[in-house]
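I'll show a sample.
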Amino acid sequence: LAVLLGCARQHAALATAALAACLVDALPTLRADAREQRDFATADRIRERLAKLGVEIEDTHEGTRWHLASR
């Protein structure tokens, strides 16, 4: 039973990590959309919230990229 619970816990952790990755992927896209609509206040709020989570946003000619900030 302990082994099964350990696997379930590990599976839940992986699912949580996958969900977090999907959300972090979506936010830069929402930010880019806000910038396109010239809603810079929203774009700035998204950048600030991602920065608090340790995610850096980089705007390039090819689009917006993100990476985890080095600590």
